[in-house]
Amino acid sequence: MDRLIYTAMNGAQRILEQQSAITNNLANVNTSGFREQLAIYRSVPVESPDTRTTRVATVAATPGSSFEAGAMAETGHALDVAIRGEGWFAVRTSQGEAYTRAGDLAVNADNLLVTQAGLPVLSLDGAEIQIPNQGTVTFSSDGQITALGAGDNPRDIQVVAQLKLVNPPTGDLRRGDDGLFRLAQGGAAQADPSVSMVSGFIEKSNVNPAEAMVGMIANARRFEMQMKVIQDANTNEERANSILSFNS
């Protein structure tokens, strides 16, 4: 079979991989703090044994993420927080400490401060944060949490904990299948006192829907081109076989 078919098939497979990443980005347009997933492919020459270039194949480049900040949306909700500039919230997962920009927090049935996915948000000392029952919570710009219990005197406001805010180099972070980021070498990042946040806001996804839609359309056209190449190669082979059969 003509090697052209394998070359076109390889290109089609890479296109489908990138299309999957773009689809995931579009599905998370409204996910707070989501970071756009990048899926890049590049062409490489296919060389014959005597090092002559015959065709060009496609390989997937190292996938990454866009760390540009998303737009800030004011909600006025007491448990909504957003990081100004660079930085991350620390959360606890079954695989250890992880990092997110999603600041739409909640208090679960056990009075723990958690993300919308139910993951405990960590304090400066790496512990889970207990919120007083039916307490009114406020956040300072450095992540300090104060709470006033239901029916308590305003003078009895207490400092509950301080959020662990980190800012490791983006090159050290790897995205997990759960959409959270972790240190590539494992372990936990050190808290960074320079990271600041604001309450009553959430950070939106940094995915541009228009650009994602354009990317999907472009990929669909590229895939059609690859399929056309495979069809043409198959047609040429059938014609060649018919000529050989006629001559024989």
Automatic annotation (TrEMBL):
PANTHER family: FLAGELLAR BASAL-BODY ROD PROTEIN FLGF, FLAGELLAR PROTEIN. Its main location: other. The keyword Acetylation does not apply. Keywords: Bacterial flagellum, Cell projection, Cilium, Flagellum. The gene is flgF. InterPro entries: Flag_bb_rod_N, Flagellar_basal_body_rod_CS, Flagellar_FlgE/F/G, Flg_bb/hook_C_dom, FlgE/F/G-like, FlgF, LlgE_F_G-like_D1. Residues 199-243 form the Flagellar basal-body/hook protein C-terminal domain. The keyword Nucleotidyltransferase does not apply. Residues 5-35 form the Flagellar basal body rod protein N-terminal domain. NCBIfam families: FlgEFG_subfam, flgF, PRK12640.1. It is found in: Bacterial flagellum basal body. Pfam families: Flg_bb_rod (PF00460), Flg_bbr_C (PF06429), LlgE_F_G_D1 (PF22692). It comes from Alcaligenes endophyticus. Belongs to the flagella basal body rod proteins family. The basal body constitutes a major portion of the flagellar organelle and consists of five rings (E,L,P,S, and M) mounted on a central rod. The rod consists of about 26 subunits of FlgG in the distal portion, and FlgB, FlgC and FlgF are thought to build up the proximal portion of the rod with about 6 subunits each. PROSITE patterns: FLAGELLA_BB_ROD. Residues 82-147 form the Flagellar hook protein FlgE/F/G-like D1 domain. This is Flagellar basal-body rod protein FlgF.
